[in-house]
Amino acid sequence: MKGKFVIGAGFGDEGKGLVTDWLCRTCENPLVIRFSGGQQAGHTVVAQGLRHVFSNFGSGTLQGAVSYFSRFCTIEPIGLCNELAALLAKGVQPLLYIDAQCPVTTPYDIARNRQHHPHGSCGVGVGDTINREEQHYSLTFADLFSPWILATRLDLLRTFFYKEYAEASVDAFLDCCKQIVNSPYIRKTHGLPLGFSNHIYEGSQGLLLDQHVGFFPYVTRANTGTTNAVALYGSTELEVYLVTRAYQTRHGDGPMSNEHLPHNIKANPQETNICNSYQGEFRRSLLDVSLLEYAISRDELIRTSQQRHLVITCLDHVRDEYRFTWQGRIICCANAAEFVSRIAGKLGFSSVLISSSEDGATLADAL
């Protein structure tokens, strides 16, 4: 069994779904493993004439790859059922294993999240779910399979933990829980499912949103680097695919460098999430390679891995903007080849893959 780790280098939206889909095309018998975050991921994949944004299933699903949500991920039943219905309507029959220990997001978590998000949020309750779990008011995927346990835990949540959100309806939530328990496309498991030749670990948000690396409080409640993935994989012999766009992006509030510099970065007309009412606007700036270097330095296994690849996506958006910053200086490049080569050199990568939004289903060797 081989493990490949797809990690975002920045503030998210780097192209992790694209890389995961590509690996599932090129690997035999893959299992896509989500090891951080939860339903707030939005990984866009274009394949087989279909376009889908993955939140509750792994991004190899269009290639027929099986998905696994580990104990480090949250799940949200209504969103899960909605995405399953969307995939089935597209003619895709997914298979998703969910660990029995996965925390479950309730309507109460979402209601609180949407009223208290001073530092930015997708509004789907991930952070509040984790906070609740840490205070011992637990609801896990295994609980959905016992109606009495599910009802009892929801009642205790409403009575003691979320009294001010007691009016939030749980009817649709309970209906979706029943659908999930009886679905042939979703299965409960205890630990990693067996029988797969390649494990593709699909990250959620980027390193610069990691709860221990990013700029608190503008972070996600997750370990977005290798910590969780290594705990699941059981080895530090990693093959890492570190993903960044050819420029810098961020959703909503929080620090992001280079916004004071003018740029001509092309807006993507097919951008998945331009504005979210809870998260805020989609921001862009010149790529700050020093910031990526900092993120890499904070994850020891990425920094020292003998098998690592830099992936630069959306290269077509900077056709007339081959510039990046390094230690506060603007580095100008004559063309795409020099742009990619110099970024790889600054970060110490000898293997680089590139893609553009025009051929987003493929990756090409750059060096």
- Kindly name the structural category: alpha/beta
What is the straight-line distance between the termini? 28 Å
Reading off the top of the CATH hierarchy, the class of the largest domain is best stated as: Alpha Beta
The CATH topology of the largest domain is Adenylosuccinate Synthetase, Chain A, domain 1
- Strand percentage lies at 15-25%
Rg, nearest Å? 20 Å
Number of helices: 10
Low-confidence stretches: none
Do you know the CATH architecture of the largest domain? 3-Layer(aba) Sandwich
Element order, helices and strands? EHEEEEHEHHHHEEHEEEEEHHEEEHEE
Q: What would the principal axes of the Cα set say about the shape?
A: globular
Largest sheet: 10 strands, mixed
> How many domain units?
2
How many E-type strands? 18
Query: Helix coverage percent of residues?
Result: 25-40%
Give, in spatial order, the strands making up the sheet with the most strands.
Answer: 7-6-5-2-8-1-9-14-17-18
What value does the average pLDDT take? 92
CATH H-level superfamily title of the largest domain: Adenylosuccinate Synthetase, subunit A, domain 1
